[in-house]
Amino acid sequence: MAQLLVLSANTDTEVLPALALLPHKVRHIAAEPASLVNAPAADLIFLDARRDLTGSKSLATLLLTTGLSAPLIVVVTEGGMAAISHEWGATDIILDSAGPAEIDARIRLSLERGSKGSDSNELISASGVVIDDATYSAKVHGKPMDLTFKEFELLRFLAQHPGRVFSREQLLSEVWGYDYFGGTRTVDVHIRRLRAKLGDLEALIGTVRNRGYCFNLSKDDQAINA
Fold first, then answer.
1. In sequence order, what DSSP letters do the residues of the chain get, joined into one string?
2. How far apart are CA 81 and CA 49, in angstroms?
3. What would the mean pLDDT of 16-24 be, rounded to a whole number?
4. Residue 180 predicted with pLDDT over 80
5. pTM for this one?
6. Nearest CA to 185 among 195, 172, 198?
7. Fewer CB atoms near the end CB (10 Å): N or C, the chain?
8. Do 10 and 93 lie in a common domain?
9. Could you tell me if 19 and 55 lie in one domain?
C-alpha cells in the first residue's frame, strides 16, 4: 500500500474515480504553490492536468525545481495527451478514465523506477562543477549556480556526455524536445548564459566550429576517466 498525494484545482471532484477501488492511502490538496509548502509526505504524486494544462505544467516545473523526490504521474484527458512533453518532468501520464488495474500497475512501475533512481543518486562532478540531479541544482567551485530549468537541463545533458560534440539541432531535440518549434538560436543564447554563470570555468563548454558544442573535461578529469 502506497501513500499517494493528489494535486487538483478542484479537490471536491474525483480526479481518478477508479483510484478509490484500490487499497492505497490517498490525500488530496489544492494544486497551487502555496499548498506545497506544508504538503504531506507521499510515495507518489498525481497531478490533475485535465482542465488547465498551462497551470499544471508550471506546477510540475515548480515541483522539479524544489527538489521533488517522489514520482509524478500527470492525469490528463484524451485531448490533453499531446501537450505532455519531457519538460513536465513527469514519471508517467495516465488518462482520467483508467481502470483500477491500470492505475495500480502504473503506481507500481513508477515506484520501482523511482527506487532505482534514488539508489543511483546521480551526482555529476567534473572540473570544479557539481551537478545534483536529485535537487536540480549545480555548484561551481562550491558556490550555487543560479540556473533556469532549461539552463540546468542543458548543462546536465552536456556534462553527462563529456567530449561528445552535439549539433544545435541535436541539443534542441534532446533538451527542448521534438515538440519545440523555436529556432536553433535559443541554444546559442542558453550556451552564452551558461558560460557567463560558469565564470572562470566557461571553457568547460566548448565550441566546435561548424559542428556544435561539447563539455570539455580538464586534463585531471580526463586522466581519471581514462
1. --EEEEEES-TTS-SSGGGGGS--EEEEEESSHHHHTTPPP-SEEEEE-SS-HHHHHHHHHHHHHTT--S-EEEEE-GGGGGG--GGG--SEEEETT--HHHHHHHHHHHHHHHHHHHHH--EEEETTEEEETTTTEEEETTEEP---HHHHHHHHHHHHSTT--B-HHHHIIIII-TT--S-THHHHHHHHHHHHHHGGGGGGEEEETTTEEEEPPPHHHHHHH-
2. 10
3. 92
4. no
5. 0.54
6. 172
7. C
8. yes
9. yes
Residues 191 and 221 in one domain: yes
Q: How many domains does one find in the chain?
A: 2
Amino acid at 101: A
**Interior/surface letters 151-172, b for 16+ CB within 10 angstroms, e for the rest:** bbbbbbebbeebeeebebeebb
The pLDDT score that the predictor gives to residue 223 is 41
Ranked by mean pLDDT, which of 114-118, 173-177, 198-202 comes out on top? 198-202
Question: Which of 66, 67, 60, 13 has the alpha carbon at shortest distance from 32?
Answer: 60
Query: Which domain covers residue 26, as residue numbers?
Result: 3-120
What's the average model confidence in pLDDT over 144-151? 88
The residue type at 131? I
Average pLDDT over residues 139-167: 89
Per-residue pLDDT, 119:
45
- Note the pLDDT of residue 114: 62
